[in-house]
Amino acid sequence: MAAWQHYSPLDLLQGEIRLFILSPGEESQPIAGTLLHTHLRAPRPYQALSYTWGSSAIQVPILINGYPFMVNSNLYAVLLELREKGKEIVVWIDAICINQADIQERNAHVPMMHEVYSRATQVIVWLGRESEDSNLAMALLPTIIYDTITNSDENANVLVHRSSQDDMKSIWRPLARLFARPWWTRVWVIQEVALTSNHITVKCGKAEQPWKFFVVAGVILHDAFVAGAFSHHPRIMNDSILAGITISSWPSEIVSMDPEKNKSWTLEHALTKLARLRDATDPRDKVFGILNLIPVDQWPCRPDYSLDVRTLYTKVALHIMEKNKNLCLLASCVTGDWPTKDGHLRSYFRRSLIAGIPSWVPNWTQMRYCPPFPGGIESTVPVEEQLAITSGDSFDMCFRVESGDILVVFGRILGEIVAVGEGPVITRPYDLFDGTKMLVFANFIYRHLLSIKHKITDETCMDAEWALMTCYASQPLSFTRAHYALWRQFGSLQPSSEFVDIATARLHGRQVMSMSNGCLGLVPFGAKSGDCIAILKGCHVPMVLRPVEDEEVEGKSKKLSHPHRYIVVGEAYVQEYDMTPLDQDSRFQNTESQELRLE
């Protein structure tokens, strides 16, 4: 159907928007309505809908201005729930109120989104249709909050510890599933609720609850998980439950950010902590969808859907590096794939590709499969402290760009990777909940260390294990090195949840490696023998770099390495058994700083 039958031009310079007037009707009647133009400065009272577009495979017709208009099945379901029998409903819905075929109109609406939602009399969050346990979960929200408040001497961790297996299935699992619904994973919904927390209603099927219940319940659920409470019930854990628990704390994080009190997100934190973890049909929305969460003077560019993804992501990466005056962003890059011995790729570690994107530009459509090391762009460390951590003391000499997409940096190549471990893979935080699994993995590290270091004693091997599992720990652990030795040798003194959390974060998605100079360390899956470890000026952690090679030179099938040209693979940890810090290790004092070209 031609767009002119539904849309007339908006006066975008005057802040004009469209509202959808949903006509009253019986359940058996088709969904119908009209479009009304209004100005944001003095709009007609309206509600704003926050929902997920979902798959476009199933389209359902409705009537707008008397003409058929196709919507996806999820939007159709919420329109059925919103429609009343005796009165009109005025609502703003992006898929209907924005002419999606008009790029200029789409561009103009992005900066207006926060105003569209903040000026609404009510924001309706639609989690989706009713499921077998969704009504139970919605009804449990006030009960869980009340129980936590009335048992103020017992935190959520204790409450979950005290829960039986049946309680876990009937209470905590339905709640986690509610947080695992697709709405929570979409990048656009973040800004839709960020500035409107006082008038949000959350609907799931016919059930509804105020947004503040989800804010509090999410904190309870997430804190209990972090404290290790769910480790007592590992059998109920699965990827869906984990997804809900993992994402449950972000409503409280959003509420804590108040632009009026100078508590807004930075661009890099919004990208790495919010956008990267969420889905977007259009990869450019990973950037455009979070712009309204940050001050305008931090915007890398105006919303422009005529930009291709490669150009946009490169522009954003350079903007962050120039603003922060360091290269900490490089640690957010995930380049390597992890092939198995038969040449196939393990699907969990298969990276998504964006045509032509340089390896030093983070691919924000790619989920990180290993948690970041502390102190970088994805941590909460202020920029001033990040600069103190890095080795770069002169921004003018930190990096430069050549030919548009080659990043010239300054650093030292510490050595080459000669061996990378093979064995168990930690791909989920609950993989190490069980103490037996933890021992199995520790034994794997032990055997691997023995295999790559022939002159190593049991004691120094234990030291290396401990160093790898607790690297970059910010403070001493209550579960000490001595406790670790007793646990490894006798199985006594079960590891504390604090130790398990740190070990999981360090080992998750990483491999043990050894270098040509005898050093040990951790590298992301996808690193391989022949890769180099480098310290870069302005970067807070060592980086894995892969020499650029040509597959064919002068018609001959052979590989030729290009001096000082590299692909970024990911961040690394490097440590020798004697625990000598890298910057004090005499073996590295003679390595020369040089220009390295990252492609």
From TrEMBL:
Which Pfam families does the protein's record reference? Answer: HET
- Report the residue ranges that make up the Heterokaryon incompatibility domain in this protein: 46-192
Name of the protein: Heterokaryon incompatibility domain-containing protein
